[in-house]
């Protein structure tokens, strides 16, 4: 009997050591919010390479789809590749990536309904259990948010929060600029800064999590389909593994009791749920003031102004 107990004890100890869990969520699949900067070949390569890396690393991923961006045959084909991958869970992200805080409830319902219809026609029976609000803007006030959440519930959607993100779209903009100028060194520099900043965000939000909950919780990471994430997906996942993370499905992550915490913030800004779970407004504002900011922010703004 004794020899049976030892492996059991060991495995339970290992399980305790592996409590840090993370669900990877990727928005704007299969096409990012800046489609004009991508050639069709680049878009295809970005999607296919990202899917290959997800498959090779065996990381469960949930994607959030804007069907209005998928209606050409080529893009529908890309969406089908995501749908057909067993590691991928499907979510809706509205038809047009609209800011739902600016929409009437009827327009919001149309955005959800038409998106739902198109995704399900491609998904062919694969479940679409999740919904993420574009810009994480759930509505302009608590009443508007409650109405939208109630509607989603009626459609069997779970509205999905996130806890950690790292402004990948800003780094991606600079990365594309460097690649277009064939400045490989600059592209590498941007990518290195992106990984460094992302890990810095993890340190900040892990600390905030411990202050709020007194423990680690299952984290939900948000990023986007883009070339930067694709090229550095392996590196980032390896770094997260090195921090003790185990990759889990969104369903598993959301089983953490932390996700039943009431939300106390009811405006439209799209920050982490870790801030929204802070009851005291002053305390929340203080944490927000001290939250990480990308060091490339000025360079990003300058580049955007030039376009
Ligand atoms: Zn989005």
Descriptors for this entry?
307 residues, alpha/beta, TIM Barrel, eight-stranded parallel sheet, 53% helix, 11% strand, globular, binds zinc ion
How would you describe this protein?
With 307 residues, the chain is an alpha/beta fold. It is 53% helix and 11% strand. The chain has one domain (20-306): TIM Barrel (Alpha-Beta Barrel), CATH 3.20.20.370. The chain has 12 helices and 8 strands. Strands 1, 2, 3, 4, 5, 6, 7 and 8 form an 8-stranded parallel sheet that branches. The chain starts with a helix and ends with a helix. The mean pLDDT is 92. The structure holds zinc ion. Zinc ion (ZN) binds next to strand 1. It comes from Chitinophaga flava. This is NodB homology domain-containing protein. Keywords: Hydrolase, Metal-binding, Signal. InterPro entries: Glyco_hydro/deAcase_b/a-brl (IPR011330), NODB_dom (IPR002509), Polysacc_deacetylase_ArnD (IPR050248).
- Biggest sheet: strands, sense, closure? 8 strands, parallel
CATH class designation: Alpha Beta
CATH architectural label = Alpha-Beta Barrel
Instruction: Note the run of SSEs as H and E.
Output: HEHEHEHEHEEHHEHEHHHH
Count of helical stretches? 12
- Note the gap between the termini: 72 Å
The number of domains is: 1
CATH topology (fold) name: TIM Barrel
- Poorly predicted regions: none
Strand content: 5-15%
The unique ligands bound to this protein are: zinc ion
Shape: globular
Report the mean per-residue pLDDT as an integer.
92
Structural class: alpha/beta
Number of strands: 8
The helical percent reads 40-55%
Full CATH superfamily name: Glycoside hydrolase/deacetylase
Radius of gyration: 20 Å
């Amino acid at each position: 009997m004794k020899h049976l107990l030892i492996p059991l004890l060991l495995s339970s100890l290992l399980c305790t050591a592996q409590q840090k869990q993370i669900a990877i969520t990727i928005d704007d699949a299969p096409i990012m919010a800046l489609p004009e900067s991508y050639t069709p070949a680049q878009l295809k390569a970005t999607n296919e390479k990202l899917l290959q890396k997800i498959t090779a690393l065996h990381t469960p991923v949930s994607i959030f789809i804007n069907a209005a961006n998928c209606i050409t045959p080529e893009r529908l084909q890309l969406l089908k590749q995501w749908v057909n991958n067993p590691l991928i869970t499907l979510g809706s992200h509205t038809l047009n990536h609209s800011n739902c805080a600016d929409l009437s409830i009827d327009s919001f319902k149309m955005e959800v309904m038409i998106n739902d219809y198109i995704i399900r026609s491609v998904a062919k029976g694969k479940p679409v259990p999740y919904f993420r609000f574009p810009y994480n803007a759930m509505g302009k006030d608590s009443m508007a948010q409650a109405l939208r959440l109630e509607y989603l519930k009626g459609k069997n959607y779970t509205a999905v929060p996130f806890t950690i993100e790292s402004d990948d779209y800003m780094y991606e903009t600079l990365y594309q600029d460097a690649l277009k100028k064939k400045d490989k060194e600059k592209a590498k520099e941007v990518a290195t800064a992106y990984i460094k900043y992302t890990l810095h965000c993890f340190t900040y939000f892990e600390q905030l999590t411990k202050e709020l909950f007194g423990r680690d919780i299952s984290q939900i990471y948000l990023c986007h389909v883009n070339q930067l994430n694709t090229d550095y997906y392996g590196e980032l996942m390896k770094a997260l593994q090195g921090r003790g993370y185990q990759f889990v499905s969104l369903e598993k992550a959301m089983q953490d009791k932390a996700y039943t915490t009431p939300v106390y913030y009811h405006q439209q800004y799209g920050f982490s749920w870790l801030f929204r779970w802070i009851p005291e407004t002053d305390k929340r504002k203080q944490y927000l003031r001290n939250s990480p900011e990308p060091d490339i922010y000025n360079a990003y703004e300058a580049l955007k102004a030039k376009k």
